[in-house]
Amino acid sequence: MTHNELLSRKPQQNSLRWKNDEREPLVIIVDDDEAVREGLSELLLSAGLNPVAFASTRELLDAGVLDRPGCLILDVRMPGTSGLDLQRHLTESDNPKPIIFLTGHGDIPMTVQAMKAGAVDFLTKPARDQTLLDAVISGIALDAERRAQSIIIKKHVDRLATLTHRERQIFAEVARGRLNKQIAFDLGISEVTVKLHRSNVMRKMEATSVGQLIRTWELLPAELREPPQASA
């Protein structure tokens, strides 16, 4: 997309259709240049996507749309909070939303910083239409994958809460690769008891194999993978 093409684009009247279905991916544009916002909105609409545009990160944060599925297209340098500042804020808020940076002021250190922090892409204005659309599609797909993973992890956490203290101990030891007889010796119980507890863990965690049980353990949040202390 050339600069003149970007300036000449005008948004369609249905550019607010994103409000109708909160399950649909939303492409959030944040750029202080109105012509850029309009041009990007029109491009995304023409590709069947749902854009919404803001002139500043403050406007975006006040709008309450960050929990919607989708991705962000951010300018780097804007009045107030910059795009990189917003990226940092979202990461610290445990909302690592996929971000495509689109800027006329990029440099290599800035690009490295953004990509290391998890940006999908870092594009320089004027970017080609297809290059930008490809990045947006990748961002939406990444967000969908993360959301699906989050649902799975929540199910694992809920199942973990059904385990007894001893079962959580056994779960942690199995995940470390310990054998039944080693676990029995360490915990001062019989090997038969270990097998019984392990069977209960697999049933409650809905794992069909030890390998699947270990993969489930690795998906749990780090604070829940701390071996439980021995009960008094």
Q: Please state the oligomeric state of the protein chains shown.
A: single chain
What letter string, H or E per element, gives the SSE order?
HEHEHEHEHEHHHHH
Secondary structure category: alpha/beta
Q: What is the name of the CATH class of the largest domain?
A: Alpha Beta
Which strands sit side by side, in order, in the main sheet? Answer: 2-1-3-4-5
Taken from the alpha-carbon principal axes, the silhouette is elongated
Helix content: 40-55%
Number of structural units classed as domains: 2
Report low-confidence residues grouped into runs of 5 or more: 1-18
- Give the overall average pLDDT: 86
Keywords: DNA-binding, Phosphoprotein, Transcription, Transcription regulation, Two-component regulatory system
Organism: Terrihabitans soli
Domain HTH luxR-type: 156-221
Pfam family, one: GerE
Walk me through the topology.
Blueprint: H1 3-8, E1 26-30, H2 34-46, E2 51-54, H3 57-63, E3 70-74, H4 83-92, E4 99-103, H5 108-116, E5 121-124, H6 129-160, H7 165-175, H8 180-187, H9 191-204, H10 210-219
Parallel strand pairs: 1-2, 1-3, 3-4, 4-5
Protein name: DNA-binding response regulator
Keywords: DNA-binding, Phosphoprotein, Transcription, Transcription regulation, Two-component regulatory system
Pfam families: GerE, Response_reg
